[in-house]
Amino acid sequence: MTQLLYITATPKSPEHSVGLQVGGAFLKAYREVHPDDDVRIFDVYQEAFQTVDGDVVRAWEKLRKERLEFSELSPVERQKVNALNDITEMAMRADKYVFVSPMWNWGIPPRLKAFIDAFVIVGKTFHYTERGPVGLLHNKKALHIQSSGGIYSTGPTAPMDHSHPYLRQVLGIVGIRDVQALYVEGHDFQPERAKEIVRSAMEQAVKLAAAW
Fold first, then answer.
1. How many CB atoms neighbour CB 134 within 10 A?
2. Treating both helix axes as pointing N-terminal to C-terminal, what angle do 75-93 and 54-64 enclose, rounded to 10 degrees?
3. CATH of the domain at 98
4. What is the C-alpha separation between 159 and 212, in angstroms, rounded?
5. pLDDT in tens, 96-153
6. CA 18 to CA 168: how far, in whole Å?
7. Which segments are annotated as binding site for FMN?
8. Nearest-angstrom CA–CA distance, 131 and 145
9. Distances (CA, A) of 210 to 2, 81, 156
10. Cα separations in angstroms, 111 against 56, 108, 115, 174
11. Is residue 7 over pLDDT 90?
């Protein structure tokens, strides 16, 4: 069964988030076209998930550098490493990914960065070679629905976008090369066109869902 992992990264409600509105249009259309697919929704601002913290880093160092067995870690270290592995394995099981996130200060929200750090793990989703990192996730695809009040997909402000380019690059590291972007942008820069911008993005989302 094909699994879609739908990841949202905003503390706003759908009523106040144009990204979630567009993402919701995609998800509704996707479920209609792919009724047998397994859709997993993961809200990084609602889910309590393990992040890479001091205990996790110390545990990794003990396992990799000191060659300790997993059973030799402290109870806290074992619990946290297992919890982090749950996130990594959840991401590894998916066949398709949809990331819905706003651009914050020209980058991604911190909780999304923490989620990414929980599954971009050397030895799990990629490994190093003499030629650099090689991804271990194959035949997968991703869509990034990015919202921003200004316009950053093209034009003079495009170099300021450190959100989608980062996500595309980090997904490429783990082997996910098929990464599309759907920008919901300019609704604050052009408030008189805000409804039109969102409506157009929702129409694009529905078309993408049908092609997915």
1. 12
2. 90
3. 3.40.50.360
4. 29
5. 999 999 999 999 999 999 999 999 999 999 999 998 999 999 999 999 999 999 999 9
6. 21
7. 147-150
8. 31
9. 15, 38, 33
10. 17, 8, 6, 19
11. yes
Contacts of 194 (CB under 8 A, 6+ apart): 187, 188
Averaged pLDDT of the chain? 96
Nearest CA among 76, 11, 83, 79 for reference residue 49: 83
CA dist., res. 141 & res. 96, Å (int): 5
The residue range of the domain holding 43 is: 3-211
**Would you list the DSSP string of 6-26?**
EEE--SS-GGG-HHHHHHHHH
Determine the Cα–Cα distance for residues 112 and 45; give it in Å rounded to an integer.
9
Residues 6+ apart with CB under 8 A from 55: 74, 76, 77, 80
DSSP state of 160: G
Binding residues: 147-150
Q: How many structural domains is the chain composed of?
A: 1
Q: pLDDT tens digit string along 119-134? A: 999 999 999 999 899 9
